[in-house]
């Protein structure tokens, strides 16, 4: 009877809040093609799962944890799948460390995944400790440089997927569009080329001398022709290079861009093609396209949305370029009749551009 | 010469700064993860509950259960052991282990009776009261002489403040179990229905029936509560002190005793009573309140940080901190009256013990919420509950229903 009474008694303790429940902390860090993982698992849980306390004295030492490392690693890896492209990927434990948290000590498994393509989403299937303690939870933190996501896994939802950030086409497009605008604004050599190319647009070369155009419309037409030629040309090579149909060494491209600025500047001082600067714009546009492609490659392109990204970047470059034109052209039209424009702005400006370009040329060719 | 020296100096300064930054970040990283130097460095001391004498029994049960995982009596024995450990240690891991032992039946619609009782016990501890009640009602329908189920049912109803249903469960229990157990069951109901004096007297008589430490502990805690409801501090203290002589750790007793000492403004004694109880949120909370009242700022801050860490850990695993503790935390320590009242109301929807009424009344008064004070007062009056501690909180609000 008293045995029953003792058992019955247990029911009467009222529920109170308590200790922290069992959690593990899994971190996945993607950077480029590399995947690093860290997994902090409570020593208390590992004691129950694989046994750490070798001498059964109730204290777990660093030596005991190291001695059990092989068991710990095996237990962890068996209860965890890293999945991408629908396949389970091998994960290696590269090191063992320790973390002290508010609720006790944790073993920290440093791990590494296989090299993975950047634009493939990852998934994790988690089973650690669920069979021993269904109230256990896995707290997973995922970062890939663009996003930081946390997820909780439980026996009810043991699998989580981490989508590639900005998977939406619109998002990719907007991101790359911004990059394109930004690049034309901070890319000093492109601005210099564009300005050098546009400076004579409000003038006309007659009898070995520049004189202002009468009608603004003529200047506008010239500008449209030049800018369109430049745009068309660099769009062609940007696409060819990004799709890796034509690949040029970047040193050659950078040097050629400097040469393009130099020749355009000299052409302003001593016109060789006074009436067909659009041709100059087209030929050199081809070279600048390779330059843009280099930037785009450095940014990293999402394989799944390559064309979207390319289009976004290209349109961004055009928009950035147009903004510059809209800013500069009215000023030029305003000043075109002033002799100072021809002497200081056109001659002085072109001379300065030629000098800068010459310095770049040597730097880029030699270094 | 000076010109040449300057860049060199700058370079040196820059390198030094860089080295400092790298070292600082390395130190920062070390705090998170580190590689111990000595093999004999102790990383963790396992709780005694993992290494005590039950260990061998639990191990044997596990081995037997591995051989026959569908053996109901083995599984329930193991789960029951874990549930007791979980209760006395206020450690949710043990409830997880208990759940694992019952895994074959955990999702079952109608598991065997002993499994169902154990499942209800786990649900009750996790505050899933309705789930626990559903299981227990199913059990007593099938086996009306199941004392365990009736007792647990009475207890769960009491937590919810459903005193009539609790009384009915105690009556059913009286038909199946020892009369002294049934008296203990009734005493809990009497405490909450304005018959604390009778409850105290009844328990005074029944004391002789209980030699076993654990039962006596429960009886004395209930008796102390009856004394406190009547404002008899000396009697309550005697009961608490006797209950504490039992070696079994009882978190409910500790919390009740600490609350009594807090009421008596004996803050140093609260800290002494709970000095080893920092792994239990509800007790940590009492320590934090006592430290704050004592003006021991550094200690109060330490406890408060620990509590914040517990609460945020609970949220980050997708759970919710228990509203009773969270409300008291806001009320006493964070001083966020609005939040305290919100949490106290949410807690009142789930639990309606005297302490829950106190927390809600205090939070409502602090916000000048007379409607809530009146509503709680009416609810208490409808049950005839008489508790001097609650009356004090109601009087100021101009309510005479509870004296």
How would you briefly describe this protein structure?
With 367 residues, chain A is of the alpha+beta class. Chain A has eleven helices and 13 strands.
Cα distance spanning the termini of chain B: 93 Å
Unreliable parts of chain B: 1-31, 398-403
By helix and strand content of chain A, what is the structural category? alpha+beta
The helix-and-strand class of chain B reads mainly alpha
User: Would you give the CATH topology of the largest domain in chain B?
Assistant: Serine Threonine Protein Phosphatase 5, Tetratricopeptide repeat
Element string of chain A (H = helix, E = strand): HEEHEHHEEEEEEEEHHEEHHHHH
Q: Main sheet of chain A: which strands, in order across?
A: 6-7-2-1-9-10
The mean pLDDT of chain A is 84
The arrangement of helices and strands of chain B along the chain is HEHHHHHHHHHHHHHHHHHHHHH
Keywords:
heterodimer, A: 367 residues, alpha+beta, Growth Hormone, Chain: A, 2 domains, 4-stranded antiparallel beta sheet, 11 helices, 13 strands, 51% helix, disordered N terminus, B: 403 residues, mainly alpha, Serine Threonine Protein Phosphatase 5, Tetratricopeptide repeat, 4 domains, 74% helix, 1% strand, globular, disordered C terminus
């Amino acid at each position: 009877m008293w045995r029953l009474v003792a058992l019955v008694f247990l029911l009467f303790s009222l529920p109170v809040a308590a200790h922290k429940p069992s959690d593990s902390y899994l971190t996945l860090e993607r950077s480029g093609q590399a995947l690093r993982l860290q997994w902090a698992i409570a020593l208390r849980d590992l004691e129950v799962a694989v046994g750490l306390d070798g001498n059964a004295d109730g204290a777990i030492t660093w030596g005991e944890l190291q001695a059990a490392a092989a068991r710990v690693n095996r237990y962890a890896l068996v209860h965890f799948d890293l999945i991408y492209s629908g396949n389970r990927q091998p994960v290696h434990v590269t090191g063992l460390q320790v973390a002290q948290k508010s609720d006790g000590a944790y073993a920290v498994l440093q791990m590494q995944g296989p090299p993975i393509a950047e634009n493939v989403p990852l998934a994790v299937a988690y089973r650690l400790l669920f069979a021993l303690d269904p109230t256990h939870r896995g707290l997973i933190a995922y970062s890939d440089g663009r996003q930081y996501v946390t997820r909780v896994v439980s026996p009810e939802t043991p699998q989580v997927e981490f989508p590639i950030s900005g998977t939406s086409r619109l998002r990719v497009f907007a991101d790359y569009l911004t990059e394109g605008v930004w690049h034309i604004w901070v890319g000093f050599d492109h601005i210099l080329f564009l300005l050098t190319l546009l400076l004579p647009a409000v003038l006309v070369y007659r009898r070995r001398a520049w004189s202002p155009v009468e009608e603004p419309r003529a200047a506008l037409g010239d500008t449209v022709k030049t800018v369109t030629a430049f745009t068309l040309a660099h769009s062609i090579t940007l696409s060819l290079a990004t799709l890796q149909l034509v690949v040029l060494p970047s040193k050659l491209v950078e040097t050629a861009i400097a040469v393009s600025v130099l020749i355009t500047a000299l052409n302003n001082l001593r016109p060789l093609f006074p009436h067909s600067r659009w041709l100059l714009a087209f030929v050199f546009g081809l070279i600048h396209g390779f330059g843009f492609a280099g930037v785009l490659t450095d940014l990293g392109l999402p394989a799944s949305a390559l064309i979207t990204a390319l289009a976004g970047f290209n349109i961004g470059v055009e928009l950035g370029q147009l903004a510059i034109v809209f800013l500069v052209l009215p000023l030029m039209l305003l000043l075109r009749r002033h002799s100072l424009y021809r002497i200081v702005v056109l001659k002085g400006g072109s001379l300065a551009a030629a000098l800068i370009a010459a310095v770049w040329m040597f730097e880029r060719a030699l270094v | 010469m000076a010109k040449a020296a300057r860049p060199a100096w700058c370079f040196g300064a820059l390198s030094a700064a860089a080295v400092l930054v790298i070292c600082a970040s390395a130190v920062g990283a070390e705090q998170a993860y580190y590689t111990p130097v000595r093999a004999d460095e102790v990383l963790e001391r396992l709780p005694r509950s993992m290494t005590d004498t039950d260990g061998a029994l639990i191990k044997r049960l596990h081995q037997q259960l591995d051989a026959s995982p569908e053996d109901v009596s083995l599984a329930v024995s193991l789960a029951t052991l874990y549930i007791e450990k979980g209760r006395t240690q206020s450690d949710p891991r043990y409830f997880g282990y208990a759940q694992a032992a019952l895994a074959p039946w955990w999702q079952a619609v109608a598991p065997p009776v002993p499994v169902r009782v154990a499942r209800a016990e786990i649900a009750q501890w996790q505050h899933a009261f309705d789930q626990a009640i559903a299981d227990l009602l199913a059990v007593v329908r099938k086996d009306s002489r199941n004392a365990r189920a009736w007792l647990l049912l009475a207890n769960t109803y009491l937590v919810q403040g459903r005193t009539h249903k609790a009384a009915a469960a105690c009556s059913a229990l009286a038909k199946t179990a020892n009369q002294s157990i049934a008296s203990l069951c009734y005493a809990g109901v009497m405490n909450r229905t304005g018959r604390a004096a009778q409850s105290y007297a009844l328990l005074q008589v029944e004391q002789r029936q209980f030699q076993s430490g654990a039962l006596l502990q429960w009886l004395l805690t209930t008796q102390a509560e009856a004394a406190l409801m009547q404002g008899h501090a000396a009697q309550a203290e005697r009961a608490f002190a006797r209950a504490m002589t039992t070696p079994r750790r009882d978190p409910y007793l500790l919390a009740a005793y600490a609350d009594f000492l807090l009421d008596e403004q004996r803050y140093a004694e609260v800290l002494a009573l709970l000095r080893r109880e920092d792994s239990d949120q509800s007790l940590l909370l009492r320590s934090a309140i006592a430290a704050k009242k004592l003006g021991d700022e550094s200690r109060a801050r330490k406890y408060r940080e620990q509590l914040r860490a517990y609460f945020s850990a609970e949220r980050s695993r997708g759970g919710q901190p228990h509203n009773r503790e969270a409300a008291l935390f806001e009320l006493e320590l964070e001083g966020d009256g609005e939040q305290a009242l919100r949490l106290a109301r949410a807690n009142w929807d789930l639990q309606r013990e005297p302490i829950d009424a106190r927390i809600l009344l205090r939070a409502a008064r602090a916000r000048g919420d007379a409607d809530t004070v009146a509503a709680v007062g009416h609810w208490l009056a409808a049950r005839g509950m008489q508790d001097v501690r609650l009356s004090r909180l109601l009087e100021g609000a101009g309510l005479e229903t509870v004296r």
